[in-house]
Amino acid sequence: MFYIKDLKVSYGESEVLRGLELELGEGEILAIMGRNGMGKTTLFKALIGILPNGAGSSIKLNDVELAQMPSFKRVMNGVAYVPQGRMIFPNMTVKDNILIGLETAKVKKIPDYIYELFPVLDEMGKRKGGNLSGGQQQQLAIARALVTEPKVLLLDEPTEGIQPSIIKEMAQKLKLIRDMQGISIIVAEQVLSFTLDACDRFLVMEGGEIVHSSLREDVDADKIKKFLSV
C-alpha cells in the first residue's frame, strides 16, 4: 500500500539516495537498520517532504502520488512522522502538544484510544512536555502523530535516550497500534533487540542503499549485527 520507487535525494552536488526502492504492506511493521550516516534519516525526511525528492522519484500511498506534495499535504494523505529526538514542544502542556497534531484532522478531539495506549499522557495532561522523561516524551511524540489519522507512521530512532525496560514496552505498543488502528509502520533503528520484538521485516541501509533484506522468521541476527558494528 506504500510504494517508493527511484527515490533520489541530494545535498547540494552530493547524491545521498540514488534511486532507492522499497514497499510497505498493509499492517506491516518494517525495520530499516543501519549505522549513523547511512541514510535512514535522509530517507524519512524525503518521505515526509522535508527534503526535496529528485526528478523521477515516486512515493505512492494507496495510488496517491506524494513525491511533489508539500509536507502538510503528505500528512493529510496519511503519512505521519516522529523525528529523531522527538521534537515535542517543551514549554507547552502534554495535552496542547497532542492537540497540535489535530490541525489536519477532521475531528478536533483527542481520540479515546490515545489515552488507552498511553495512560500516562492523560495523567500528566497539564504538565509541560519538557518535564516528562525521555520515554514519556516519545509516547507524546507518537500520540501527536497518531491523531493525524495516519495510514503510515514513520519513527526515526524511537529508542534513543530511553531506558531498556521502556524499550521493550514500546515494542509491544507499536504492535498494539498496528492491531488497533491498522496502521503500517516503518522504524529506523539501531537497537536490534527492539526491532526483533516489534518488526515483521528487516532492511539494512548502507551508503544510501538497501544492502540486506529478510523476514522476521528468517532473520540472521548475527549478520545484521555485523552491518551495525562500526
End-to-end span in angstroms? 34 Å
- What can be said about the biggest beta sheet? 6 strands, mixed
CATH H-level superfamily title: P-loop containing nucleotide triphosphate hydrolases
What letter string, H or E per element, gives the SSE order? EEEHEEHEHHHHEHEHEEH
Class derived from helix and strand content = alpha/beta
**Spatial strand sequence of the major β-sheet:** 6-7-8-3-9-10
At the third CATH level, what is the topology name?
Answer: Rossmann fold
Could you tell me the strand content as a percent range? Answer: 25-35%
User: What is the CATH C-level name?
Assistant: Alpha Beta
Structural notes for this entry:
The chain is α/β, with parallel strands linked by helices. The protein has one domain (2-228): Rossmann fold, CATH 3.40.50.300. The chain contains nine helices and ten strands. Strands 6-7-8-3-9-10 form a six-stranded mixed β-sheet, with helices on both faces. The chain has a four-stranded antiparallel β-sheet with strand order 2-1-4-5, covered by helices on one side. α7 runs parallel beside α8 (192-198). The relative contact order is 0.19. The mean pLDDT is 93.
Helix and strand layout, with pairings?
Elements: E1 2-11, E2 14-24, E3 29-33, H1 40-48, E4 58-61, E5 64-65, H2 71-76, E6 79-82, H3 94-100, H4 112-117, H5 119-123, H6 134-146, E7 152-156, H7 164-181, E8 184-189, H8 192-198, E9 201-206, E10 209-215, H9 221-228
Parallel strand pairs: 3-8, 3-9, 6-7, 7-8
Antiparallel strand pairs: 1-2, 1-4, 4-5, 9-10
Helix pairs in contact: 3-6, 7-8
